Structure formats: structure tokens, C-alpha cells
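[retry 2/3] Urea transport system ATP-binding protein: previous attempt timed out, resubmitting with same input.
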Amino acid sequence: MLTVENANLHYGAAQALRGISIKAEMGKITCVLGRNGVGKSSLLRAVTGQHALSAGSVTFDGVTLNGLAPFARAKQGIGYVPQGREIFPLLTVKENLETGFAPVSRRDRTIPEDIYDLFPVLKSMLSRRGGDLSGGQQQQLAIGRAMVTRPKILVLDEPTEGIQPSIIKDIGRAIRYLRDSTGMAILLVEQYLDFCRELADYVYIMDRGEIVHEGLAETLDTPEARRHLTV
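[retry 2/3] Urea transport system ATP-binding protein: success.
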């Protein structure tokens, strides 16, 4: 599993994370919810190595990740789908997928057919430039690129942001399929409450850089949880 223990993170004098501790287990979808600006993306940056912790630790599969660069964490099995997708707009869909080859061994440098089964539109657009895709198609491409790395855990930062409802359903089906068919861990940051309620096995709610609620997905309907999510 992925374990974050007593994590603190600063941007200069500003503290974004305050003693955060979470776990994401294999074969389960763990969702982190919260309003804008409460530190959700900072938590994922700490997990993926985009920003160093001030204190605390990140451990995955028995290996402490503190001090490891993002590419080294990818080799450990952490696949990252960043907020805003960050695909390469001038590369084709096929070339974007192939950028996921970097952390894997030569024998695994193929694009898994599962990607095309989950997102058939990508197969029909392999020669099209990434920047010419719609926002929803780019999100599917970003998830596909992470899958190319053969991750043990998939870390997604607000995959439904700015996406049309039909593609949100496709993304939800893909996440559920990956959990059920591969047993990988899924760590999902979201603001879309219904999306998490349908998918999550376990949830955390953040506020002002801290965990203020945790529990099974059904606890999202309690007054305590809703108090931390309403604007």
C-alpha cells in the first residue's frame, strides 16, 4: 500500500500540509475530497515527488520514497495523471502514449490493448496531435499514458475537471475496471462528490491542510462530512 505519515509541506513560509496521514490500499479506490485550496494537489505532489516534504514520510510497497525524484517514483510503480492533463500538444496521440515508456523495461515498451478497450477513441486518433483533442479526450489520453507505465498505483488529480458528463462516466468505468481487474491501488483527488460516492472504497476530507474526516464512502452523507464540503 501507499502510506503517507505525518506529512508537512511548505511553499516558502506558507504551510500547505499539516501532519497529513493517509493510506491507499491495493485493490481499493481511495478518494481525497475538499474545497479549493485546502492542499489536495499538494498532497499528490508530495506523493509523486513534485515537491519535497518539510517533514514526514511517503512509503510505497515497503520502500520509503523521501528524496526520490519523480522518475524514480514512476519506476517504483507510481503512475500520475496531473490536474490539467499536461499532455504534449504537438505530439501525436501515439507519441504521447509512448512517452510512458520511459520508466519501464525494454520488453514492456508496448501500448497495452486495455487502453484501447477502455478508451476506443484513442485508437481512432493515434495520428492526431494531442492539442487537437477535446478536453475529455485529452483526459483519456493522460490516463492512458499513465497506464503505459504499468503502475501499481494510479494517482489522479481531479480527472473530471471541465469534462462532459458522458466522458466522466467513461473515466469512472475505467477506474473501476483497473481496480477490479488488476488489483492496483487508486488514489483519487476530486471535488465532484457524486463521482467519489460512486467509486470510492475509502474517503478522506481535507480542510486547511489537514485531514478533518475519514471513513468508508457511505460516510460522505453524514452531516459532519457535508459540513466540510459545502461552500
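[retry 2/3] Urea transport system ATP-binding protein: The radius of gyration is 17 Å.
[retry 2/3] clearing retry counter.
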